[in-house]
């Protein structure tokens, strides 16, 4: 009904601005919506995304809520010892540094602040062995993400790799220590969860930190070895067959979890890299890489949904696809960089000419955009 | 040094009243999620439409819509606060197209929208429906003939109902330039469409 009013002369003449008729026609002519299935699917993906990347403690608006109340500050100084006040001052002064250090990578000036100060403070603040284990696993994951990010920009040298690996091992050992503490305090369930997480981190490490990209076939071979080891370890009172079967399931879960972590780390690193790329990628490479990233993210979300629904096989295969797609991004970028170097070596002068042409072309198109 | 530092902070932190401790409020994540999904429910379609018309490819527009929202969430995760979602999302979407997708449009607006059928109320007579479709198609072809410079702004103003102030923020132009382009765009469209044929 609404559309026909547009064509009604009487109604149109009542509209105040002279462009109203045309405006309404433009609006009516350009109606377009997403289909319901796509809309719901995207909503589910976005919901999963918010869970995958939660708002971290300490980020966001509440930082502005630090009180500047004079009386409160004086009371605070009177009530607390000098060392505590000094600590507060250090926190206040170094707040910016700490925040800046959070995004630093090995080789940056602030990287030691991130690893040896802010993260250590978090460990010191963790109240229970379970929380300490969770932080240790998270730190190990951060090391992998750093490695993945550096690998994308071709900066993962042997030296850096060794440094990250050493830190990674330290975190994993911390997690194992906390796991042992949990086991000795009869928290068997928590202890086995920590063990599973540690196993998963080691699988993820194989994919990220190994000298060559390890493909899933190799990971599967490693899983088989893990199964045997786990079977030997859990031989206690149960019959060997059952123990082996259970160990196989545990090893499979660890394997899936490890690939999930590796995929997540690579996806996060790729997204950050593409958003804040320190290297100029060609448009074609960037579009391809983004497509690949999209495929990886989609597969990852599908894996998360399957895992939540208990479809282990589907989840595992989806995480595999996500990992492969995410790993492919690195190949894509390194190939593009290599070919760029090659062409630069081959013909510098030609390249310069073509760049000049390109620059002229792009400034021309900018003019089109900016001219009135 | 690092351990002393950590101990100091532990002492200090244990003396801070719970109400003053930063972010011990688990509701921030929930509130963030709620606002984010509400923004998707409200503006998801609009961003999709905006992107589809900008790049003429529904599949890629769908991907970029998702990317627009994930970028908005990333902004929140990094501590940003979005007070006005609508201009923020349009600006993110606009930048995404400008930064990552420079391909020239290959499909006409008319083909793009005509493809999926045009929704006209069911009780309309067949003849009237045909007339409406013909007129809508004529308008779309007219919009397609506009230079990109005017087309974007006309669509943002009349399809997306964005005020010139927001269009200026999204495109990075001054409000004055937006108003001028809008005026010229509308005039050009009038000329292209010719004498008013509203009563065909």
Automatic annotation (TrEMBL), chain A:
Pfam families: DUF5667 (PF18915). Residues 333-372 are annotated as: Disordered. Residues 104-198 form the DUF5667 domain. This is DUF5667 domain-containing protein. Residues 361-372 have a biased composition (Polar residues). It comes from the Bacteria.
TrEMBL record, chain B:
One of its GO terms (molecular function) is DNA binding. Belongs to the sigma-70 factor family. ECF subfamily. Residues 40-105 form the RNA polymerase sigma-70 region domain. The lineage of its organism: Bacteria, Candidatus Kaiseribacteriota. Gene3D superfamilies: 1.10.1740.10, Winged helix-like DNA-binding domain superfamily/Winged helix DNA-binding domain. Residues 139-189 form the RNA polymerase sigma factor 70 region 4 type domain. It comes from Candidatus Kaiserbacteria bacterium RIFCSPHIGHO2_01_FULL_53_29. Keywords: DNA-binding, Sigma factor, Transcription, Transcription regulation. GO terms for biological process: DNA-templated transcription initiation. SUPFAM superfamilies: Sigma2 domain of RNA polymerase sigma factors, Sigma3 and sigma4 domains of RNA polymerase sigma factors. This is RNA polymerase sigma factor 70 region 4 type 2 domain-containing protein. NCBIfam families: sigma70-ECF.
